[in-house]
# Entry
Amino acid sequence: MLTPRVFISLIKVMKLMNKRFQSVAKLLSMVVIGVASSVHAAEVVNVYSARHYDTDLEVYKNFETSTGIKINLIEAASDTLIERIVNEGKYSPADLLITVDAGRLYRAEDRDIFAPAGSELLDQRVPAHLRHPDGLWYGLSKRARVIIYRKEDGEPEALNTYLDLAKPEFEGQICVRSSSNIYNISLLASLVSHLGEEAAEDWTKSVVANFFRKPQGNDTANIRAVASGECRVSIVNSYYIARLIDNDDADGSAVGIIFPNQDSTGTHVNISGGGLLKHAPNRDNAIKLLEYLTEADAQSLYVKGNHEYPIVGDAEVVGVLQNLGSFKEDTINASALGENQATAVQIFDRAGWY
Ligand code: FE
# Structure
């Protein structure tokens, strides 16, 4: 029976429950707001990168510290990442693709995964020939593809250009890596641009005729082959030599460098670079990161840590890289390297440079 006493107690209990309910509700709303604001505060940028260098990790850490934006990094081979982005389609979490060689940036562009970054800052900082005309990708660092020789045997006479490698006096003296490698494809693509397809093919055939052995190994293996006297000359990327020298590896100092084409088109340079992705969920942060990578601090880390040349003028070339010497670079548009990629591959096949 509901006596007045019991009724009053019931009311008290209900009031208490109501109070508890209110505090629980208050607590819940605080949690919800907290979660919501932490989602908002947790600024991120998701980077798919085909560069596997410790230097990059240092640059990313600096970016996180200075902006509070967290970088989620996935590293894999360039073609794997491009394929993954294509397959993920509009649900891709990736904001930025970073890779090496204009030829690979072209492959990504060809799969229609980039979007224009529309950054005036990037357009100002990155020279026109080292970025996509519509801002689909930007060069972030440079590397030169140079000719090397064994210092002990002296600098070969009359070897000043890529074309000189086709001279009969170098018969049986050239070691170089396979033509499936993008660095060689881009070099030949530049020659196709400058000389035309026919002359580029003649050159390729003559160089093949001068091979000491079938193309093999990576650039470092070919530096070692020249250093040991197995082959007289090779074509390699500049940073591999600088890296060996920096590691006090005698093979690095055993080779001399020729920056080809100084009296004509300039030495072939390639870029590592990045582009904003079409379905980027964190577009603004991706652009911020691209811009950061062209700032002097990041640029000098590329130089010091990875022996790459800076893409912007105000970053200093120091250390081993400075000792390699300065040179005139080929200012052909990096896009042309991609456009002539298919032609270059066909020439390599016809010429027997496998
Ligand atoms: Fe490399």
Summary: The pocket of fe (iii) ion is lined by residues 237 (CB under 6 Å). The chain has two domains: 44-142+270-315, 144-268+336-351. DSSP finds 15 helices and nine strands in the chain. Residues 4-41 form the longest helix (38 residues).
